[in-house]
Amino acid sequence: MANPTHDWPEVAAALSGAMRPLRQGAPETMAAFSGLAKAALEPKALDTKTKELIALGIAVATRCDGCIAFHAQAAVKQGATRDEVMETMGMAIYMGAGPSVMYAAQALEAFDQFAAKV
Asked: Structure pTM?
């Protein structure tokens, strides 16, 4: 992709490093958060890929750059297709209005960057 607005793999890597002191300084809270994530992503009625697509859509609607990076990466790892991401972005735009259009473009860019590395 020409002239990306973010280097999303770098965003994910930088945030992972930045969270290390947080995990060390608030270990109980971060362990509880990790447990919450594990429980939420457990495949039951919805598979993990679908849950990651939902998380990516919520990341767009809530305008969270770091969340976009992590969930775009996870969507790629779970085998999401670009078409599935596009439908997810449609729902995020529907639910988040105009600002979500801007973040949907970034989420698609992030997905494309992570997919190019596979």
From this structure: 0.80
CA-based angle 76:114:71, to the nearest 5?
55
Tell me: the pLDDT tens digits for 15-28?
999 999 999 999 99
36 lies in a domain?
yes
1, part of any domain: no
User: What's the CA gap between 53 and 10, in Å, rounded?
Assistant: 21
Taken in order 96, 93, 79, 117, the sign of the CA dihedral is negative
Residue 79 lies in a domain: yes
- Backbone φ and ψ of 3, nearest 5°: 50, 60
Q: Which two tokens stand for residue 102?
A: 């801007």
